[in-house]
Structures are given as C-alpha cells and as structure tokens.
Amino acid sequence: MKGKRIYLLVVLFSSIALVACGATTPAASSNTDSNSSTSPTSNADTPAPASANGTKVNLNSAEADQLLAAVPGLGNRMVREFQEYRPYVSIQQFRKQIGKYVDETQVAEYEKYVYVPIRINDADATTLEQIPGLDAPEADALIAGRPYASVDDFLSKLSQFVSADELAIAKTYLEQ
Fold this sequence. Notes:
By secondary structure, the chain is mainly alpha-helical. It has helices at about 1-25, 65-70, 75-85, 90-100, 105-110, 125-130, 135-145, 150-160, 165-175; strands at about 55-60, 115. About 50% of the residues lie in helices and about 0% in strands. It has a two-stranded parallel sheet with strand order 1-2. The longest helix has 22 residues, at about 1-25. The protein is elongated and about 85 Å long. The relative contact order is 0.11.
C-alpha cells in the first residue's frame, strides 16, 4: 500500500512539473515585464529573428498581441511603451523613446522584429537603412534622388542597391 502511495505521488508531481514546463513561453515568462536590459536567451524552442525571413511587425499599426507574438521576451509593460509613442516617424525616434527603458543592446534586439514604416520622400537615412541590404551611402543616394513621383519610382531606384528578395521585403516597409 505504501509503495502505491509513493508511486501516485511521483506521478502527480511529474504531471504538475510537465504542465508547468509546457505552459512557460518566452512572452509569458515572469521576467518579461521587468526593466531588465538583458537580451532574451535563445534555445531550440525560440524562433529565429523575424529579420531572418524579412517578416517584421509595423510599429505604428501592430496590435498588442501581434507585438507579443513577434518579439521574444517582450512583456505587456514594454508593449505599452511601444504603443505610447506612436506614430513613429523614424527608427531614431523609436531608439530614443524605448532607450529610456532598456539599453542600446536591447533596443537593437527589438529592431530585429519591428520596423518603422518608411515614407519615401521624408524618411531619414537611418530609417531607410531598415531595408535589408541597404547601407548608409545607398540610403543617402536614395535621399538625393528625391522627390519620387511614385512608389514605383522609389522602388526602381532602390532596385539598383538591393536584391529582388530584399526589394520584396522593402515593399512591405513602405507607408501606404
């Protein structure tokens, strides 16, 4: 009888431990709402950065649940901070505002998953550099070519600097 009780207790505690482990996700961990400046750790269960496939979340239009799903380790407090400063007109504005709460390394980590929409005739060079494959001199060349009569004119000029895949990603970053 005593052996049966021990067996049942072991099974019960094992079940509780499995449920507890299975319920923990990066976005739901207890330290996500802290003001910690450490980057989320990566493991086999953590998705690759959004920038690896070019899919990022628009900072000006993303809902809270979209931000939580897209940015590993982002807590509800930081979602509120992200949304408080909308609309973002440049990536520099995002860096400045969010930099009040976390260090530069963490801000850079967030930028792997989010973007500020690009206004083709108004965006600064740093905001244009959100486009994969585009560097500072190329962003300056795009600025020198302003004003663009249409998005197609801008994309035509941009295609001189980036690959077809990067151009496809850039289209999603443009403000509509």
